[in-house]
Specification:
Blueprint lengths: L1 H9 L6 H16 L2 H5 L5 H16 L6 H12 L11 E2 L6 H6 L17 E4 L3 H13 L3 E5 L16 E5 L6 E4 L4 E5 L4 H11 L3 E2 L10 H7 L6 H4 L6 E7 L5 E2 L1 H4 L1 H6 L10 E8 L1 E2 L4 E9 L4 H11 L7 E11 L7 E11 L3 H11 L11 E3 L1 H8 L21 E9 L5 H14 L3 E6 L22 E9 L4 H17 L29 H13 L2 H12 L20
Helix pairs in contact: 2-4, 5-7, 16-17
Pfam family, one: BBE
InterPro entries: BBE, FAD-bd_PCMH, FAD-bd_PCMH-like_sf, FAD-bd_PCMH_sub1, FAD-bd_PCMH_sub2, Oxid_FAD_bind_N
Subcellular location: Secreted, Cell wall
């Protein structure tokens, strides 16, 4: 009863700054003179601290002019689970830790400028009840919620908006429960891929999981958009190996696969899960890996016959045994023969699920132009191969995979494409000239084939299956801050993307959701939401877009779960 009385006194209906300041001073006087001990003697000290935290949080929001934001904060506090107080998970701009929490998962410095819009609140959820409270309270006033797991969204859509918004940050929810006997694991979406790989390796040297090569990527966004890595030719995408999930819907209800239904379960495995709700955890199916795998990196410039080697790569990479993945990275470097001149370098980076003897036999027979030798090959464990692919010295302790912070951050722009026919050799030579002209943008070619060509395009929302030879990632990094520099380097990336038009998929020109690209279209989530969403949706999902829209319309008709490239609802009749 005493708690209720104090709550009513401290958080009355007026919420004026004067009342809160008076309440705060009054509470301090009560504490100083021991009056609280008399009136709240039955409470534990922690309860008093929690009460103080609640008051301070309300005071901290007084700098905002939007009463809806104050109401939202109060709603969060009112809906706090007694056993899991939400106050300690809330950060407002007045909190000394706000900036560090916000910046902790920003992976693109373009969205860490002084002029970047900031959330009015960050909720670092520590329990499912915090997520449920956030959904229930934000829906009341239709407040924009951004969901962030690892912060690797290339366009910052998980932590930036042009309207008042808050961030639901999942990084505290990162438990990983590996069950080797059943070859499964429950992984919360705040975990990183590196944490997943490390926890699997703790339990087994012959199991892994097909996901990305960057260990600091968050599980939530990666799995929600498809998730691919260097074992996709053997085992498919991450989403092809998910068997269950815990999902919180627009009404704040928690579901597993059975209760959510197969439509939602289908949608949250590659359709942009943040468009449908909040995924708390995924149950993944572990895959078998040999105790010894082999990796290599071989680089060739144009002066070292790179054109012929690249030409052979594009004719064989998708047809190699599914145990073998050979990525091609193209960039511009200084020529070793002519001072001051530039050349194109082709780097071939590989993971082979087997020993070097068998790898060399395959390469000599199927890809002889590369001239792979025994000295190029490194035999290692699967988990240590992750270090190799991340450019971490392979002898480093694998516990480094638990580090959630990248070694360095840059300003960046990314785009994507799909290739269905080899590029003629004359086309390659033309492309080299264009790349040397632009100098900065790189191209990453990731081969398909194998298991990727066997899984139907409708099995998950990710549609890019049979018929694709490889996927392109356009990579541009820079270190200068400001809009002028950003416009310059983004312009270079767009130019290279334009140059590639003749060589890539058409009608639609396909793109990969995990390589988020705002150039493909922006949804303002207004009356034209469906038409705006269709522009980018067809490129990301092709024919699967229509099914995603139907599911979205049914499970979130009010379009609460939205962002600048989310799945839209069907338009109302008459609109």
């Amino acid at each position: 009863m005493t708690c209720i009385v104090f709550k009513r006194f401290l958080f009355g209906t007026t919420h004026s700054s004067l009342n809160l300041k008076f309440s705060y001073k009054f509470l301090l006087h009560l504490l100083a003179f021991g009056i609280i001990q008399k009136t709240m003697g039955s409470l534990r000290p922690a309860a008093v601290v929690s009460l103080l935290s609640v008051l301070l949080l309300s005071i901290s929001l007084q700098g905002t002019s939007d009463s809806a934001q104050e109401t939202f904060l109060q709603c969060l506090l009112d809906n706090s689970h007694p056993s899991y107080p939400i106050s300690e998970a809330i950060f407002t701009p007045q909190n000394p830790s706000y900036s560090s929490v916000l910046q902790s998962s920003i992976r693109n410095l373009r969205f860490n400028e002084t002029f970047t819009p900031k959330p009015f609140l960050i909720l670092t959820a520590k329990h499912e009840s915090h997520i449920q409270a956030a959904i229930v309270c934000a829906r009341k006033d239709n407040i924009q919620m951004k969901i962030r797991s690892g912060g690797h969204d290339y366009e910052g859509l998980s932590y930036v908006a042009t309207v008042p918004f808050f961030v639901l940050d999942m990084f505290n929810l990162r438990s990983i429960d590996v069950d080797v006997a059943n070859e499964t694991a429950w992984v919360q979406t705040g975990a990183t891929l590196g944490e997943v790989y490390y926890r699997i390796s703790e339990k087994s040297k012959t199991h892994g999981f097909p996901a990305g090569v960057c260990p600091t990527v968050g599980v939530g966004g990666h799995f929600g958009g498809g998730g691919y890595g260097n074992m996709m030719r053997k085992y498919g995408l991450s989403v092809d190996n998910i068997v269950d999930a815990y999902f919180i819907d627009v009404n704040g209800r928690l579901h597993d696969r059975k209760s959510m239904g197969e439509d939602i379960f289908w949608a949250i495995r590659g359709g942009g899960a943040a468009s449908f709700g909040v995924v708390l955890a995924y149950k993944i199916k572990l895959v078998r890996v040999p105790e010894t795998v082999t990796v290599f990196r071989v680089e060739k410039t144009l002066e070292e016959n790179a054109t012929d080697i690249v030409d052979q790569w594009q004719h064989v990479a998708d047809k190699l045994p599914e145990d073998l993945f050979v990525r091609l990275v193209l960039d511009v470097v200084n020529s070793s023969r002519n001072t001051g001149e530039k050349t194109v370098r082709a780097a071939f980076i590989s993971l082979f699920l087997g020993d070097s003897e068998r790898l060399l036999s395959i390469m000599n027979e199927r890809f002889p132009a590369l001239g792979l030798t025994q000295s190029d090959c490194i035999e290692t464990s699967w988990v240590q191969s992750v270090l190799f692919w991340t450019n971490i010295p392979i002898e480093t302790e694998t516990a480094i995979l638990l580090d959630r912070t990248p070694s360095s951050l840059v300003f960046l722009k990314r785009k994507s494409d799909y290739v269905k026919k080899p590029i003629p050799k004359a086309g390659l030579e033309w492309l080299w000239k264009r790349m040397i002209e632009l100098q900065v943008p790189q191209l990453l070619f990731n081969p398909y084939g194998g298991r990727m060509a066997e899984i139907p395009s409708t099995a998950t929302p990710f549609p890019h299956r049979a018929g694709n030879l490889w996927k392109i990632q356009y990579v541009t990094n820079w270190n200068e801050a400001g809009t002028e520099a950003a416009d310059h380097y983004i312009g270079l990336t767009r130019k290279l993307h334009g140059y590639m038009t003749r060589f890539v998929s058409k009608n639609p020109r396909e793109a990969f959701l995990n390589y988020r690209d705002i150039d493909l279209g922006v949804n303002h989530n207004g009356r034209q939401s469906y038409m705006e969403g269709r522009v980018y949706g067809i490129k990301y999902f092709k024919g699967n877009f229509n099914r995603l829209v139907q599911i979205k319309t049914r499970v979130d008709p009010g379009n609460f779960f939205r962002n600048e490239q989310s799945i839209p609802t069907l338009p109302y009749k008459g609109n």
